[in-house]
Write a structure and sequence with these properties.
elongated; 147 residues; single chain; 59% helix; mainly alpha
């Protein structure tokens, strides 16, 4: 059953065809009555039935298209490091390994201080101890090549 037929069969329900998509795009881009909304991405998650019903009611009362058009939200592109097709030299590989090992070493030193801090601040917290021990087990398994 297509959206039009379904709406004719059940006129009290909201129309669920392409019109709904257009409504949501309109609601998301037109700032109505100066309202600032904490939109989430993707847009469909933010515009619940209750929000749509309220917006339709308000716009019917005051008029459609009277809001300020907000700029489009462009998707954020992931930043990637690309070396192109060039292969890393042995020297570059060694430098990269040393840099990562230094970061790991610094993080490991910080991590190793946690048991003392945890036991002082939260002497009876079994959950924090369990999280720490589970993390240690994970590191050991990774070092041994276990998956």
């Amino acid at each position: 059953m297509d959206a039009g037929e379904e709406w004719q069969a059940y006129p009290s329900r909201m129309f669920t065809g392409p019109l709904l998509f257009l409504m949501i795009c309109y609601f998301d881009r037109v700032q109505f009555k100066g309202q600032v909304l904490d939109n989430v991405f993707p847009t469909i998650k933010f515009w619940t039935k209750d929000r749509i019903d309220k917006r339709v009611k308000d716009e019917r009362k005051l008029g459609f298209g009277l809001g300020k058009v907000k700029p489009r939200i462009m998707p954020v592109e992931e930043e990637t490091e690309q070396k192109g097709d060039e292969l890393l030299t042995k020297e570059e590989c060694v430098k990269e390994i040393v840099a990562v090992a230094q970061k790991f070493s610094d993080a490991f030193v910080e991590f190793s201080k946690l048991p003392s801090t945890i036991s002082k601040k939260f002497p009876n917290s079994d959950i924090l101890k369990k999280i720490y021990l589970t993390t240690c087990d994970y590191f050991i398994n990774q070092a041994n090549g276990d998956q």
